[in-house]
């Protein structure tokens, strides 16, 4: 069944999550990467929330709906591109899959993204959620920069298809300079600045980024 349906693509960022189905030229949904939970739950850390799960577990909102809920506590599970609250992220993904994509996860393969310097532990947590909580038949986790190079193939101006290049990825909470050689990220040469769109807007300043990419 999974092979006959298009894979689901989910790109989770600090500020926004882009999602849709493989084969489309653009995301079908772009939603803020936030979740609104009951005020009574906001003082409890994620380990305690797992123990105290109950009715409040079903009373949450994500994306634009979360921002419009002043009586709820609005949380952002991703900080500087890294998922920090896995309990909230699992709930966020629940709405992404069932409410937005309207998909049965058992029937679709999933392609998900990760930052260039993601830890093996975070990758394992994500796989655990997708396989054990949502029972997906297959999961591929790719670095955003590699996917950006692959996406450039659709441009008519690209004469030669290659997965080698330097990607500047400036998001809501972090900016990366990522060298990619034959689809492999050169981790030792990656440069990260904890400055993104959210930081520049909040500070009401214009930042000049000088990112050392490669040293000869």
- The ordered string of helix (H) and strand (E) elements is EEEEHEHEEEHEHEHEEEEH
Number of helices: 6
**Which sheet architecture does the biggest sheet show?**
5 strands, mixed
**Name of the top-level CATH class of the largest domain:** Alpha Beta
Separation of the first and last Cα atoms = 51 Å
Quick tags:
single chain; 216 residues; alpha+beta; Nucleotidyltransferase, domain 5; 5-stranded mixed sheet; 4-stranded antiparallel sheet; 6 helices
Describe this structure in words.
This protein has 6 helices and 14 strands. The chain has 216 residues and is of the alpha+beta class. The chain folds into 2 domains: 2-144, Nucleotidyltransferase, domain 5 (2-Layer Sandwich); 148-203, Nucleotidyltransferase, domain 5, CATH 3.30.420. The chain has a 5-stranded mixed sheet. The longest helix is centred in the middle third of the chain and has 15 residues, at 86-100. The N and C termini lie far apart (51 Å). Mean pLDDT is 83; it is low at 203-211.
Which SSEs are present, and which pair or pack?
Blueprint lengths: L7 E5 L3 E6 L7 E4 L2 E4 L7 H6 L9 E2 L1 H4 L4 E4 L2 E2 L2 E2 L2 H15 L9 E5 L5 H14 L5 E5 H8 L13 E6 L4 E7 L2 E2 L5 E3 L3 H7 L13
Parallel strand pairs: 1-9, 9-10
Antiparallel strand pairs: 1-2, 2-3, 4-5, 4-6, 7-8, 11-12, 12-13, 12-14
């Amino acid at each position: 069944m999974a092979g006959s349906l298009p894979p689901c693509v989910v790109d989770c960022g600090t500020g926004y999550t882009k999602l849709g189905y493989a084969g489309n030229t653009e995301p079908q949904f772009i939603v803020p990467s936030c979740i609104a939970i009951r005020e009574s739950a906001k003082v409890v850390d994620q380990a305690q929330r797992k123990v105290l799960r109950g009715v409040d577990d079903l009373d949450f909102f994500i994306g634009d709906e979360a921002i419009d809920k002043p009586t709820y506590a609005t949380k952002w599970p991703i900080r500087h591109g890294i998922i920090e609250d896995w309990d909230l992220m699992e709930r966020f993904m629940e709405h992404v899959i069932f409410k937005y994509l309207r998909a049965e996860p058992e029937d679709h393969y999933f392609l998900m993204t990760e930052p260039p310097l993601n830890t093996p532990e975070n990758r394992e947590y994500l796989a655990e959620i997708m396989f054990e909580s949502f029972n997906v038949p297959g999961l591929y986790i790719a670095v955003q920069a590699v996917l950006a190079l692959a996406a450039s193939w659709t441009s008519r101006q690209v004469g030669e298809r290659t997965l080698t290049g330097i990607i500047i990825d400036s998001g809501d909470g972090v900016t990366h300079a990522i060298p990619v050689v034959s689809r492999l990220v050169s981790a030792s040469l990656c440069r990260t600045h904890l400055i993104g769109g959210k930081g520049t807007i909040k500070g009401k300043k214009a930042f000049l980024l000088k990112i050392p990419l490669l040293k000869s």
